[in-house]
Design brief:
The complex is a heterodimer of chains A (about 400) and B (about 375). Chain A has about 400 residues and is of the alpha+beta class. In chain A, about 25% of the residues lie in helices and about 20% in strands. Chain A is built from 11 helices and 12 strands. Chain B has helices at about 5-20, 135-165, 170-185, 185-190, 195-200, 215-225, 230-250, 255-275, 285-310, 315-330, 350-365, 370-379, and strands spanning about 40-45, 50, 55, 60-65, 75-80, 80-85, 95-100, 105-110, 120-125. In chain B, the strands form 2 sheets. Chain B has a 5-stranded mixed sheet with strand order 3-9-8-5-6, with no helix packed on it. In chain B, strand 8 and strand 9 (about 120-125) form a beta hairpin. In chain B, helix 1 packs across helix 12 and helix 9 runs antiparallel to helix 10. The longest helix of chain B is centred in the middle third of the chain and has 33 residues, at about 135-165. The chains are: A alpha+beta (about 400), B alpha+beta (about 375). The interface between A and B is medium-sized, with 22 and 31 residues.
Chain lengths: ~400, ~375
């Protein structure tokens, strides 16, 4: 079952030995000295496990996300790709250079090298499968398609750009060092050359979600605390109920996995910045600086959804927190893991091209993200200041066992 | 892990043998000499080098110099007036060394500023060829292609130059593509001759304006300005330069790994300047160059393919298939009329993306060929 890959072939031909010299330098030191401080700073996060890392891992500061399209409907090529990707991801998360050929004068090194001397920096690499993968006849995966894996339907207030949406496969690389995250996507794209083509990619420069009780709530680009009511990984009950595909769920190959929805949400920051503090707070439903619900004083106190002031709800009916709250959504919640982004200047406006790259994990996108967003897209006062310009959904398979690969439960 | 040093040693030996061929025309550095190099020791004195003359067998030579003067501090080995190797700033008491692989012949041994500055280094005997018959065959096969194309370049440049000199813009434009094709097929070799490639093929701003000449300067005049006025001397110089190239490639040293790398460089040319429309920015015949680059790359690859087939037959097959894919991707853009392809300006972003991806896929695999060849030769 050992994957026969290009690099392995070369290694068996005797060339591999040359690579190890460099592989053993600097980058490894971080791994050795790391005290396994999961998800914080320079330490390493295990790649192998029951679940893929990068979901319940405390949210790292940086993101590089990429969506790929498959070139041919060749199940063997797909399997080999996932085997090579998993192996490379495990090497990178440990802070090692990938591959075997890294010091041979006449050959381009397997690893592109920009992480030499850097610590593993909590790198996680999370793989997902888009709906398109199950529609390719040559792959023969139609019967295995999870019922919950449907393209996100058109939603109110969508302004989607096809070139920033969808994809057959995805790679979410998160790290506390931006270069480590970039390196992961770059090298996986290189390994995939000929099998997949990158469709779109997104850099995120700051986390906008908290996924652990050990973390403070960060602020998004609107200056608001984001993710106060997010699911925390320590709340295993909520993780089982809302995020992980359970032991009795179908299809069996998804057990231990989850579904990921991404939305590229452009913020109209110039307009937001010109609205009054009161307007901003009424739009969100929280105080800007403390993060407390309107009428409250502490960030973590429950939303007073039933309270009124001067005959009006204290938390406005069209405010973001009310519409997004579990109690207004039949108890449904999602695990958010988004990042702020900026991609230079909007050419047609001369304004900042910036916003939130929203990532959410859940058991059933239709019941969770789609249901919540349908209401938000229709009623949310925040829509005055945002546009959803990219959208994608992926089935995130369970984690791999050491020696195995992500996707093995599907592809065998 | 314990097997590692042995493997590594094998590999280094193999690389060493190849490196020997690159350095046949002379190179210099501070690396320690290989085991079978001949050592030649000199003192640098006020009079010059001591000994003043020397004789040595052809092959790798390690020159060891010891400073013994405050004013004369440099040792150089020259072929005519070309410095092959040197060590500078060796004042009294300082030592230094450099290595060269020299062929049979007489070289100048110079300690600059000495009262008897120049001596003679006589190298005798033949350099041993480290190449197997398969490698020699690969090199011979590529050399033939190289010489064919530089000859064709001269043949096709002549009428183009004549039209430019005659001031016939329309005819010059119609002859331009045919002259470009043979050059684009073998460009990496032209690049190995220092300023010859910039003289023939520089784009505006690649070189100072006063030095700009060659194909693209004429291209700009013909297409952007619609005239050949003032281009006659540029055209005549171009012809002289391509003739010089034709003469030079006949003497160029080639080695298998270099040819394999050349195949890869040609695809790099495609990615960097043809898919982007930067190469032929006035005539927009970038796809003509694109195909010529790919053809040149394919012939270079096919020359070394028998070596690769020993170590990695699967890779060889995949590369063949990927070359076919590139041609298939290019096919829809071919036209019956000159210059044989649609102009770059007619391509959409989706078109260029498709073309770029086909090249990237091929190039990623092609870049593994040099290493695979070395492995094959070592094993």
């Amino acid at each position: 079952m050992t994957p026969i890959t290009r690099r392995r072939l070369l290694a068996s031909a005797g060339i591999g030995a040359a690579g190890v010299g460099l592989g053993a330098t600097g980058y490894l030191i971080g791994a050795d000295s790391a005290e396994a401080v999961e998800g914080e700073g320079t330490g390493s996060v295990a790649f192998y496990g029951e679940h893929q890392a990068g979901i319940d891992t405390p949210a790292q500061d940086r993101l590089h996300f990429a969506a790929f399209d498959l070139v041919d409907d060749d199940p063997k090529a797909l399997r080999e790709l996932l085997q090579e990707w998993s192996l490379a991801a495990s090497e990178m998360t440990e802070g090692q250079l990938i591959g075997d050929v890294n010091s041979l004068e006449v050959a381009p090194p397997d690893d592109t090298g920009e992480t030499v001397g850097l610590a593993p920096s909590s790198l996680t690499v999370t793989f997902g499968f888009g709906p398109g993968l199950f529609e390719k006849r040559g792959l023969g995966l139609a019967a295995q398609r999870p019922a919950a894996l449907k393209p996100i339907p058109p939603l109110p207030a969508d302004e989607l750009n096809e070139l920033e949406s969808g994809g057959d496969l995805c790679v979410q690389a998160c790290s506390d060092d931006p270069q480590v995250a970039f390196h992961a996507v770059r090298n996986l794209a290189r390994i995939g050359r000929g099998t997949v083509v990158m469709r779109w990619s997104q850099l995120g420069f700051g986390r906008t979600a908290t996924t652990s009780r050990s973390q403070d709530t960060p602020r998004n680009l609107m200056g608001m605390k984001d993710g106060t009511a997010n699911i925390r990984a320590e709340d295993t009950g909520a993780m089982e109920r809302h995020v992980w595909i359970g032991k009795g769920d179908e299809p069996g190959w998804m057990r231990g996995g989850s579904f990921m929805v991404t939305r590229r949400i452009r913020m109209l920051l110039e307009i937001w910045d010109r609205s009054s503090l009161e307007d901003q707070e009424q739009t969100i439903g929280r105080r800007k600086y403390s993060g407390a619900p309107l009428g409250g004083s502490d960030e973590f106190e429950p939303l007073p959804l039933d309270e009124e002031k001067d005959g009006k709800p204290l938390i406005p009916a069209d405010s973001h927190v009310r519409l997004a709250s579990a109690s207004e959504n039949s108890g449904e919640r999602i695990l958010r893991r988004g990042y702020s982004f900026t991609d230079g200047v909007d050419e047609s406006l001369g304004e900042l091209e910036a916003g939130l790259f929203f990532i959410a994990f859940q058991r059933d996108p239709e019941k969770q993200f789609v249901a919540i967003q349908r209401r938000l897209g229709q009623f949310d006062k925040l829509n005055e200041y945002i546009k959803h310009v990219g959208s994608a959904v992926f089935a995130v398979p369970p984690g791999a066992r050491p020696g195995g690969y992500v996707g093995e439960t599907l592809l065998g | 892990m314990n097997r590692l040093p042995v493997r590594l040693a094998l590999l280094v030996t193999a690389l060493g043998a190849l490196a020997l061929f690159v350095s046949a025309c002379g190179s210099s550095d501070d690396t320690s000499p290989s085991g079978d190099a001949t050592a030649l020791a000199f003192k640098i004195t006020d009079e010059g080098c001591s000994p003043h003359d020397a004789e040595v067998a052809a092959g790798p030579i390690n020159f060891e110099a010891e400073g013994d003067s405050s004013s004369v501090t440099e040792l150089e080995i020259l072929d005519g007036e070309t410095i092959l190797g040197e060590k500078e700033n060796l004042t009294e008491g300082l030592n230094g060394s450099f290595s060269l692989t020299l062929e049979e012949g007489e070289y100048t041994l110079r300690c600059n500023g000495g009262s008897e500055e120049d001596g003679t280094l006589t190298v005798t005997g033949k350099l041993k060829s480290a190449n197997s018959p398969e490698v020699e065959k690969a090199i011979a096969s590529y050399r033939e292609y190289l010489e064919e194309n530089t000859a064709e370049l001269t043949t096709n440049t002549k009428p183009f130059v004549a039209a430019v000199v005659a001031g016939n813009v329309a005819e010059a434009k119609s002859l331009y593509a045919a002259a470009r094709i043979p050059y684009e097929r073998i460009e990496p070799v032209a690049e190995s001759f220092g300023d010859l490639d910039p003289r023939i093929d520089a784009r505006e701003n690649d070189v100072p304006a006063s030095e700009w000449g060659g194909f693209h300067k004429i291209e700009k005049a013909l297409w952007a300005e619609g005239t050949a006025a003032g281009m006659a001397p540029v055209a005549e110089q171009l012809l002289a330069d391509v003739e010089e190239l034709e003469a030079k490639v006949k003497k160029v040293d080639l080695q298998a790994v270099q040819i394999a790398n050349g195949a890869n460089e040609l695809l790099g040319e495609v990615s960097a300047s043809k898919i982007t429309g930067e190469e032929e920015r006035y005539s927009h015949i970038d796809l003509v160059d694109f195909k010529a680059n790919v053809e040149g790359s394919q012939v270079a690859f096919e020359s070394v393919e028998p070596l690769l087939s020993k170590s990695d037959p699967q890779l060889a097959k995949e590369i063949e298939a990927d070359f076919d894919k590139v041609y298939r991707t290019l096919e829809p853009y071919e036209t019956a009329a000159d210059p044989g392809f649609v102009l770059y300006t007619e391509l959409t972003k989706a078109d260029t993306r498709r073309l770029a991806q086909s090249i990237d896929t091929l190039a990623e695999k092609l870049s593994q060929v040099p290493a695979a060849i070395v492995t094959g030769e070592a094993g």
